[in-house]
């Protein structure tokens, strides 16, 4: 019974199993064809799309930043260079225990709390495989220490990046300027393609003015990359074009002499080669360390620079507008001669003051008792104010303006440096336009001794001095001598012609005696000079300080002191260099400013071998 | 009378035809050749996906050696002996699964491993074989097609390891084990009405279940079903895998030339996603060849099942054949983005030890079933 049942069922089971197996086989074949269909879809239908995606995955275009051009002084001394800056960088992906690694690193190298904080912050922004700096600016010893222990720190490496470096930080801070990280405003004006790989841009000085030349052109590299971003193979390469090297007219030795000669004073010096317009020295003291900006200045240091009462960030040589004081007298003297208002032998009496007709107000001479009977020559040599009050009164303001305008006063010199101020050469038209007021005769007298509305920059003064030294023909002040191998040609300014050329000599003779005459205001600096200097001292009253109430009680006195000025050229009969020196709150031009000019001439005309 | 059906002439023919060395070693030559070709292709792809890592290849070759050896050893065990082992194997396997759940090692975020000191072992691998053996053993003793009561019991035997493994969580293996058990039930002949009924009820319940789910649970299900909505998370694997396969085209980029895998865009390129490496380098033509080898193995296996002489062997062989192909299907469907990523290796090709040993032991069982028939018949 059981057997027959089993036999019967066995047969049934066999049939059932066979039919079910066939069902499974059909099912499996269906699955098989489903997979083939899917693969056909992916590999035939959408093949192109996925090929593109694979290509995009694989190939990465990366930029190579160009190397910024170097800056040299006229003798080939490097003023701005690119040094490798070493930073300790960590790749989080490759580090098992971050805290432990940092702990061990800090036993090896000084790592501050703020370093760690900054690292943690950056780490969150970066991808896990991206190299993130923990410490910047490692010195050589630190690099050596880490290199020796490198094998103990997988995922930690030293990266070298070029960093702008200025070997003469304080001397060149205003001329060269500095580079800094590109900011939002600059992002809008730069060519985004060319700056794709660049982190820095010139912020001030030559670095800014010649940004296009210094920057160079970006390069590209196509690399085959892994998913982690590691590049395996370079597919194509377009080398970046390095920025041009600039050679400046600046003589760094001269720059240093000028800077040091200013001593503890705040001041500025401009020295121009009279034969080419080449700017040999352009000093604004105090300077600052441009390297701080190139490295990325911290807030505290920046605020310290900004709030310092000596205003180190202010470029006095280009943007400082000072009352020129008596340094304008030779120019007004020349104006008087040229207009025929005065003659060389004409004498006036100086009682120590001057009064306009029908006016009570006494315009005083700097010398209490007056200079007595005096000529133009003596008035320049001894800087007689009364003579120039009278001259100004005769000339009238508009003729004074017209004449001095030819010497570049009240206008930018056009030096190849951005940010230049134009100063101010007043006229009645100007006063009407700017202040909507009529010109008063008293203002003409004040203008006649370089006070009042008159404002000049040191560069302007030096440039005007160069024109005077060259008897009317001169060149535009220029800082850059050559870009790579291309020399920059001197650009002459419109020559000044006088009705009588001997008038030049009359004025130059007077300036000669300012230094070399027995009663010259700068006679002290002639001692021991193997060449002759012609110059003019100036003392300018400080107006601006009165309005500034920030200074504390103790400093007020210091800051109310007059500015000491001196313009000069040498050798007097065959000029090579024109110099303008302004010493803020220095007192008298003859005693404070003139010796600085002497030091400069000594270096330039008779350099120590 | 029906016995004579089982002892039909083809069997005696067979007996006479294959009495050589292979028969005495209980080896099925067709299967062996197909399996060896497949493993060789595996080594070839692994050279590319593993970046010519010799150590990796050596380890894989060693595992293959061990696995083939295990296959040959198991092939010597006659099916009736396997049948006796079946319930015990299942019991031990289930206890080990419980052990893993309570004190298992955590590897790759999931509790799967049991550390026996000298040997790290995945009990779920044991269940891959023990589950269909258990169900086949249980149903072989009963009248077929099985009654509702037996179906319920069989379902419980399938459910226990499936749930335990899904909890590890190892959804891929759980699916494979469930399908191996259900395949036995299907082959045993459960009625189509029941099958359709279960499918209908399941389909009807899904929306109800969905409406009871919380928002984040729904989101998880959605991401699981459609990973490409999360391209940097769950979708990353599948997107990169599709790029690899799609960019391979008809002819492929050539061996060792697949940029997706070689440049490490493709994750798990040596393990679960090795098929994408193969597709990228050998193209559609290569894929068809590879899938055909799998299909041939299945066909040979199901042939062995049909040829088997007793119910246990038949059910077990049928289930093993089917499960083998399901392995392949789940993996390729997952890699090509047809199924969610559940973590099933490409059988005999993916880098990795235990699953390969389990698979070849399964083929050992199939060989045993096929080559022990003359002993049964005499």
Describe the structure.
The complex is a heterodimer of chains A (about 600) and B (about 375). Chain A is an alpha+beta fold and about 600 residues long. Chain A contains 24 helices and 21 strands. The termini of chain A are far apart. With about 375 residues, chain B is an all-alpha fold. A three-stranded antiparallel sheet of chain B has the order 1-2-3. Chain B has one domain. Residues about 1-15 of chain B have low confidence and may be disordered. Chain B is built from 17 helices and three strands. Chain B is about 70% helix and about 5% strand. Chains A and B meet through helix 1 and helix 2 of A and helix 1, helix 9, helix 12, helix 14 and helix 15 of B.
Which SSEs are present, and which pair or pack?
The complex is a heterodimer of chains A (609) and B (378).
Chain A: H1 2-45, H2 47-58, E1 59-64, E2 71-72, E3 78-90, H3 98-108, H4 113-125, E4 132-138, H5 140-149, E5 156-165, H6 169-172, E6 179-181, H7 184-189, E7 200-202, H8 205-209, H9 211-215, E8 219-225, E9 231-238, E10 246-248, H10 252-261, E11 267-273, E12 279-285, H11 290-295, H12 299-307, H13 316-319, H14 329-339, E13 348-350, E14 353-355, E15 362-364, E16 372-374, H15 376-381, H16 385-395, H17 397-405, H18 428-435, H19 441-448, H20 458-469, E17 480-483, E18 486-487, H21 502-516, E19 534-540, H22 544-547, H23 553-560, E20 563-570, E21 577-583, H24 589-605
Parallel strand pairs in A: 2-10
Antiparallel strand pairs in A: 1-8, 2-3, 3-4, 3-5, 6-7, 8-9, 10-17, 11-12, 11-21, 13-16, 14-15, 17-18, 19-20, 20-21
Helix pairs in contact in A: 10-24, 14-16, 14-21, 16-19
Chain B: H1 2-6, H2 9-17, H3 21-24, H4 29-49, H5 54-75, H6 79-103, E1 105-107, E2 110-115, E3 120-121, H7 123-140, H8 148-166, H9 171-188, H10 192-212, H11 215-225, H12 235-248, H13 259-262, H14 274-307, H15 311-335, H16 354-371, H17 373-377
Antiparallel strand pairs in B: 1-2, 2-3
Helix pairs in contact in B: 4-5, 4-14, 5-16, 6-7, 6-8, 7-8, 7-9, 7-15, 7-16, 8-9, 9-15, 12-14, 14-15, 14-16, 15-16
């Amino acid at each position: 019974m059981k057997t027959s049942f089993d036999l019967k069922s066995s047969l049934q089971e066999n049939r059932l199993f066979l039919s079910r197996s066939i069902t499974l086989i059909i099912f499996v074949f269906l699955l098989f064809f489903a997979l083939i269909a899917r693969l056909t879809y992916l590999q035939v239908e959408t093949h192109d799309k996925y090929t593109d995606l694979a290509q995009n995955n694989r190939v990465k275009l990366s930029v190579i930043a160009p190397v910024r051009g170097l800056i040299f002084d006229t003798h080939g001394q490097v003023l701005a260079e690119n040094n490798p800056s070493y930073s300790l960088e960590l790749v989080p992906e490759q580090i098992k225990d971050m805290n432990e690694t940092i702990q061990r690193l800090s036993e090896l190298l000084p790592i501050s709390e703020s370093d760690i904080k900054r690292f943690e912050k950056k780490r969150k922004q970066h991808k896990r495989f991206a190299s993130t700096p923990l410490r910047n600016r490692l010195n050589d010893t630190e690099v050596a220490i880490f290199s020796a222990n490198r094998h103990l720190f997988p995922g930690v490496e030293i990266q070298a990046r070029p960093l702008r470096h200025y070997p003469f930080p304080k001397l060149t801070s205003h001329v060269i300027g500095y580079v800094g990280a590109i900011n939002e405003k600059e992002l809008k004006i730069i060519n985004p393609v060319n700056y794709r790989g660049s982190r820095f841009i010139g912020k001030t000085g030559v670095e800014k003015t010649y940004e296009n030349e210094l920057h160079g052109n970006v390069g590209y590299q196509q690399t085959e990359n892994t998913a982690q971003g590691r590049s395996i193979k370079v597919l194509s390469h377009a080398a970046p074009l390095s920025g041009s090297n600039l050679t400046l007219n600046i003589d760094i030795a001269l720059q240093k002499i000028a800077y040091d000669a200013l001593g503890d004073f705040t001041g500025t010096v401009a020295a121009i080669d009279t034969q080419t317009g080449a700017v040999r020295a352009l000093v604004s003291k105090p300077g600052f360390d441009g390297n701080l900006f190139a490295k990325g200045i911290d807030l505290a240091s920046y605020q310290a620079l900004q709030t310092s009462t000596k205003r180190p960030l202010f470029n006095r040589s280009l943007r400082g507008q000072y009352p020129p004081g008596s340094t304008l007298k030779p120019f007004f003297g020349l104006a008087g001669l040229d207009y025929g208002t005065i003659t060389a032998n004409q004498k006036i009496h100086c009682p120590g003051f001057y009064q306009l007709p029908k006016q009570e107000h006494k315009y005083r001479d700097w010398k209490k008792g007056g200079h007595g009977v005096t000529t133009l020559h003596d008035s320049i040599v001894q800087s007689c104010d009364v003579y120039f009050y009278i001259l100004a009164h005769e000339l009238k303001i508009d003729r004074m303006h017209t004449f001095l305008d030819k010497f570049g006063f009240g206008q930018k010199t056009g030096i190849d440096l951005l940010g230049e101020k134009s100063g101010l050469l007043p006229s009645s038209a100007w006063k009407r336009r700017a202040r909507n007021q009529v010109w008063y005769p008293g203002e003409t007298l004040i203008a006649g001794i370089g006070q009042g509305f008159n404002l000049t920059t040191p560069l302007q003064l030096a440039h005007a001095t160069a024109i005077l030294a060259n008897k009317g023909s001169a060149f535009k002040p220029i800082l850059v001598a050559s870009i790579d191998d291309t020399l920059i040609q001197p650009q002459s300014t419109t020559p000044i012609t006088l009705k009588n050329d001997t008038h030049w000599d009359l004025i130059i003779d007077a300036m000669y005696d300012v230094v070399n005459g027995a009663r010259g205001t700068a006679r002290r600096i002639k001692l021991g000079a193997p060449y002759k200097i012609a110059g003019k001292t100036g003392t300018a009253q400080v107006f601006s300080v009165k309005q500034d109430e920030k200074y504390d009680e103790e400093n007020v006195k210091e800051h109310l002191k007059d500015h000491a000025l001196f313009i000069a050229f040498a050798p007097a009969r065959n000029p090579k260099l024109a110099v303008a020196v302004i010493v803020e709150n220095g007192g008298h031009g003859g005693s404070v400013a003139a010796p600085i000019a002497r030091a400069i001439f000594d270096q330039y005309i008779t350099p120590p071998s | 009378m029906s016995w004579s059906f089982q002892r039909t002439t083809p069997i005696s023919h067979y007996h006479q035809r294959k009495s050589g060395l292979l028969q005495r070693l209980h080896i099925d030559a067709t299967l062996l050749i197909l399996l060896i070709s497949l493993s060789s292709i595996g080594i070839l792809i692994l050279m590319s996906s593993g970046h010519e890592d010799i150590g990796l290849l050596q380890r894989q070759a060693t595992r293959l050696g061990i696995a083939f050896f295990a296959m040959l050893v198991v092939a010597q065990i006659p099916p009736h002996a396997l049948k006796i082992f079946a319930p015990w194997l299942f019991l031990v396997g289930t206890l080990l699964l419980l052990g893993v759940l309570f004190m298992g090692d955590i590897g790759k975020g999931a509790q799967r491993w049991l550390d026996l000191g000298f040997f790290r072992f995945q009990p779920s691998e044991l269940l891959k074989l023990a589950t269909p053996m258990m169900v086949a053993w249980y149903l072989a003793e009963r009248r077929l097609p099985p009654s509702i009561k037996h179906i319920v019991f069989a379902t419980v035997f399938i459910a226990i390891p499936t749930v335990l493994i899904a909890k590890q969580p190892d959804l891929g293996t759980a699916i494979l084990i469930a399908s191996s058990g259900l395949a036995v039930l299907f082959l045993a002949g459960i009625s189509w009405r029941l099958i359709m009924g279960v499918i209908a009820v399941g389909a009807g319940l899904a929306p109800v279940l969905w409406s009871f789910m919380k928002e984040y649970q729904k989101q998880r299900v959605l991401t699981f079903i459609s990973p490409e909505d999360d391209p940097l998370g769950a979708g990353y694997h599948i997107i990169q895998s599709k790029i690899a396969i799609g960019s391979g085209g008809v002819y492929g980029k050539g061996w060792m030339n697949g940029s997706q895998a070689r440049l490490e865009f493709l994750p798990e390129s040596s393990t679960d996603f090795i098929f994408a490496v193969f597709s990228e380098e050998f193209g559609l033509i290569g894929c068809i060849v590879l899938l055909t080898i799998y299909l041939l193995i299945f066909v040979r296996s199901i042939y062995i099942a049909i040829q088997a002489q007793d119910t246990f062997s038949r059910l077990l062989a049928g289930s093993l054949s089917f499960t083998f192909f399901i392995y392949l299907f789940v993996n390729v469907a997952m890699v090509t983005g047809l199924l969610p990523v559940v973590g099933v290796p490409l059988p005999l090709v993916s880098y990795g030890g235990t699953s390969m040993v389990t698979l070849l032991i399964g083929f050992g069982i199939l060989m045993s079933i096929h080559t022990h028939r003359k002993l049964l018949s005499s």
